[in-house]
Amino acid sequence: MNSKKIDVDELFDLFPEGDESTYVDFKESPIYWIGMYKKLILNHINFNKKVIKFFKEANSELDVQDMKDAGEYVTYNRAWSWIKKIDCEVELHTDAIFSYSDEYLEATLELGISYFQNLEEYERCAHLLKILKESKKPLI
């Protein structure tokens, strides 16, 4: 077996000098925050339907409504942790809203407003409503 040692100097010569790579953490960008909000709500709706159907068919002793309520609580509050970072006064944030603007974003925002309205979390409703209105603005 012929094993060749790697020359570390040769390896680093492959990279041009002065080329500094930049690490970008996309989790700290508004487009990621909006995407996570939208994804969490949409995935929750699909998953929740399947879980409830499964437990109803299994005649489980578990309270299906309690499971649904617990799932919604976790989902909407986790989704809120992302969307609350959006500031409609910042252009980078409004650009991100526009990038994700479609009927699904509007639906998830409306669902969030409805959910938090039932809990009387009106500050959250107001924030989601600002984003919803921003998502419906026409591109100039």
Write a structural description.
The structure is a single chain. This protein has 140 residues and is mostly helical. Helix content is 68%, strand content 0%. The protein has one domain.
Essential attributes:
140 residues, mainly alpha
Summarize the SSE layout with pairings:
Elements: H1 8-13, H2 30-57, H3 64-83, H4 91-100, H5 103-118, H6 122-136
Helix pairs in contact: 2-3, 2-4, 2-5, 4-6, 5-6
Tell me the β content.
under 5%
- What string gives the helices and strands in order? HHHHHH
For the terminal residues, how far apart are their CA atoms? Answer: 67 Å
* Global structural class: mainly alpha
What is the count of structural domains? Answer: 1
Helix content: 55-70%
- How would a textbook summarize the main sheet? none
Low-confidence stretches: none
The shape, in one word, is flat
Rg is: 23 Å
Structure summary:
It is built from six helices and no strands.
